[in-house]
Amino acid sequence: MVYMEKNTPQCESAHFIKTPYLEVRLDKIRDAYARLSKNFIGIEIYYAMKCNPNPEIMRTVFECGGQFEISSAVEMKKAILVGAEPKNILFSNPVKTLDDIKSAHRAGVECFAFDSYSEVDKLAEGAPGAKVYVRISIPVRKSVVASEGKFGVAIDYARELMHYARKMGLKPYGISFHVGSQMLDPESWSYAIQHSAKLISMLKRDHIHVELLDIGGGFPVCYKDVSRDNIDKISGKIIKALTKYIHGDVRIVAEPGRYLVADSGVMVSTIIGTAERFGRKWLHLDVGANNGLMEAVQTSNALEYPVFDSKKSDEKDIFVLTGPTCDSQDTIMFDVPVSADIQIGDKIYFEYAGAYTTAMSENFNGFPSPKTYVVDKKKD
Ligand SMILES: Cc1ncc(COP(=O)(O)O)c(C=O)c1O
């Protein structure tokens, strides 16, 4: 594959590759990492590998200096395969199977998240003496891909849990939060940091010294109507809040997923059918919410990928973009301007598709998941 021209997806000339597929540009991951680390002075970066566990993507992040945040023992093994030292892995899923805890502990993982008494019991059994960090909840400010609400406890309860962890022989080590994914409100991190600082003071009075503050992920990318300088505003607020509220010897880590990889990916699909129903024009693609663009369903179609098509005609018409299955939940986006003369066999490209796409794909109705092709400017 020949790398063509900056910002021109190579996939546009790759007619011979069977769709659907995800083209990932590793140079864009390096750019995202550089932008983030420039903004996050003094903050350690742990890639939330759940959003795209492709080994070449992980290796690229690792070579940039990133470590990994994992949700399961399977993810841990993948992180180790790309070179991560188990002691540098954060097991940030607050609820784990006992088997996964044991296998991570055996491998040398030292840090585990939790937010319940029963998780403390499991950790005490499966990873005796481990460093544990409690996940707190923060008052909900709505993110685009809502992931807040399931995990996290109030700070009073978190304080009790940290006491219990100490009693059970674990090391009460840190605090974590996650503001939700594709969070557009910079204040949500400031608020959460302020909240964490309260818990740090409460624990200090109990002679528990918090050594880690994990500010989670959620950093937004430029889907439709999101400005590029958002991350500067967010990181400015984060650094300001950390400087104001967090004092002493506390390691600060962030767990970006989407921000590091979304921009690197273009999902390439082919139109397999067209229809007009009650005056609305539909394009049926070989990729849909079930086999690659699951976040369309998860956000009730609020997440809008920038889209372009292979016809590139000046005259546009408005279409619904839907997937190949028989399920009506499979629709990706409504009211999308596409070349008016588009036909079966033409291509639709979804930009910013590197995160939470292939990782969440399933083969419902027998339609295949997109393959990933990785291109790298350095190697051309
Ligand atoms: C604990 C935790 N950290 C980090 C992330 C990554 O979030 P994002 O991809 O929005 O940066 C998630 C996503 O669900 C998460 O649950």
Tell how many strands the DSSP assignment holds: 16
Number of domains: 2
> Secondary-structure element order, as H and E?
EHEHEHEHEHEHEHEHEHEEHEEEEE
Describe the sheet with the most strands. Answer: 8 strands, mixed
Q: Give the full name of the CATH homologous superfamily of the largest domain.
A: Alanine racemase
Describe the structure.
The protein is an alpha/beta fold and 380 residues long. The protein folds into two domains: 26-262, Alanine racemase (TIM Barrel, Alpha-Beta Barrel); 264-375, Lyase, Ornithine Decarboxylase, Chain A, domain 1, CATH 2.40.37. The chain is built from ten helices and 16 strands. Strands 1, 10, 11, 12, 13, 14, 15 and 16 form an eight-stranded mixed beta sheet that branches. α3 (73-81) links the parallel β3 and β4. α1 packs parallel to α2, α4 (98-107) packs across α5 (117-126) and α6 (155-167) crosses α7 (187-205). The longest helix is centred in the middle third of the chain and has 19 residues, at 187-205. The chain is elongated. The chain starts with 20 loop residues before the first strand and ends in a 5-residue tail after the last strand. Mean pLDDT is 93; it is low at 1-8. Pyridoxal-5'-phosphate (PLP) is lined by residues 48, 51, 69, 92, 147, 178, 181, 216-219, 255-259. Pyridoxal-5'-phosphate binds next to α9.
